[in-house]
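Appendix B, example 12.
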Amino acid sequence: MGWVVMIALALLTGAGLWVFLRRDRGALQFAAAAILFALAGYSLQGRPTLPSAPKAPPPQTDVPESEFAQMRGDMLGRFDRAAAWLTMAEGFQRRGNTRAAVEVIQAGLRDSPNNADLWVGLGNALVIHGSGMMNPGAQYAFQRAQVIAPNHPGPRFFYGLALAQGGHFDEAERIWRGLLAEAPADAPYRATIEERLQALAAARASGEIPAPTPPTPQPQQ
């Protein structure tokens, strides 16, 4: 079949060239030589009897959903414009494409530069892209969200979460305790903060994470 296809293509190509180049004898001879050269190359290197070996697609590796993705609906909301951008970014994160997740949220910020939820999402996405470590870009994003929405618990809560995920447990605890002290008694997010503090205490009690660092004594005046 390989030879049949090659000869058919050569005849069709030759016929087409004859129609367009029949008045230019030199060009026609050059085109004919090229076709013969292609047939000669196929005769030397072509392997029409070789069985096909389709390449399997790369395995799809799904990354577990981040804690931010699981909790942001309760702390930030679900049905605003930011939620649509963040949901799209989390889809890329689950497929392991953390760079695309960052770029999606940056696109959302170009559309809504003063959206605190998107700045929180960008901070979280940069932490995930940095293998779970806080970095200057992520820290700036969290701080920007706090400036835009100073009375909203979300930016500070998720900043503490990112710090804890990077091993900065003392600082995360300080932020969460401050939030809890300021939260109204009937605030629905109090339970979420209390659960995080209890998880920190349990991890310290089991030795999973180090005990809190005692405060550095201040020099006497």
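Residues 2-45 form one domain. The two ends are 95 Å apart (CA to CA).
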